[in-house]
Amino acid sequence: MSSLPQHLDLHLIRILYLLLVEKNVSRVALKLNQPQPSISASLRKLRELTGDPLLVRGARGMVPTQHGETLLKPAKRILDEAEGLFVKKSPFVPEEATRTFHIAAPDYLDTQFLPNVVAALRRGSPGSKVVIHSLGPGLDYLRMLSDGEIDLVIANWDEPPAHLHMSKLFEDPIICTMRADSPYARRTASDAMTVEDYLSLPHVAPSQMLPGYHGVIDAWLDRQGMQRKVAVESPYFGVIPYMLTQSDLVLTTGRQFIRFYERTLPLKSFTVPIKFPPMRFYQLWHQRVHQSSEHKWLRDQVSAAARALMPK
Description:
Layout: H1 10-22, H2 25-32, H3 36-50, E1 55-58, E2 61-64, H4 66-85, E3 100-105, H5 113-124, E4 129-134, H6 141-147, E5 152-155, E6 165-172, E7 174-179, H7 183-187, H8 195-200, E8 202-206, H9 216-223, E9 229-234, H10 240-244, E10 250-254, H11 255-262, E11 267-270, E12 279-285, H12 293-309
Parallel strand pairs: 3-4, 3-5, 8-9, 8-10
Antiparallel strand pairs: 1-2, 5-12, 6-12, 7-10, 7-11
Helix pairs in contact: 1-3, 1-4, 2-3, 5-12
């Protein structure tokens, strides 16, 4: 790149190409609607830049030199590629698309949410592929968003990165649940629970998802100067309800998440005696895809799936 002459513009390359094709200064001037002296001046500049006459007199007019002929294909390739840079992107047609959508999400979402997202994407763009990435300490989602390796992140952190775009999806009120015949559940006839009971019961909690951040529950308790007794940490949130059925553990989570398991598992839920704010889920994406039509369509499908969770 350092050997390129300064002030080399695309128009000069276009003149070079036309001169080599037309072999006539007057015809090039006519095609470009420019005065002939201007094209002649450009030819002089091109000769100076290349160190070659480019066009010389032949038996029937001007002909390209041997070096000039070698420049014809590169000049055309440059013009074609430059034209491709500024071709207006065709609109995204999901029914005809064959792209891959990458979504990073935790596994403690409402059980129906991601299935609904996948179903919507399959209906709307059957030729496309969907890849779900598990959020965890090993996933550098900030880099992957900026590099285009993932399209969006679904999360519920207290303070999402300010430089990312965000749209809210849904809120999930916080409750706690345990095995219906656990010692505490048998002892407590109603759903009343004291703060002391809540903090002293053995809790199961999801493993650390982000470095230095242990989740919305413990982060909120820490700000209130409280600490619960976490007896078990698990990265497999989907199996935690089954852990409850064989232990004395307590799970604090969103109501929408646990309602699916309450239908089939012997669980009892309690109103948490501490006023936690609801879990707020949102989707995050990078500025680089903010105006992209396919990404807008993807975010619309995710938002629609979230709305479908809300009680009518």
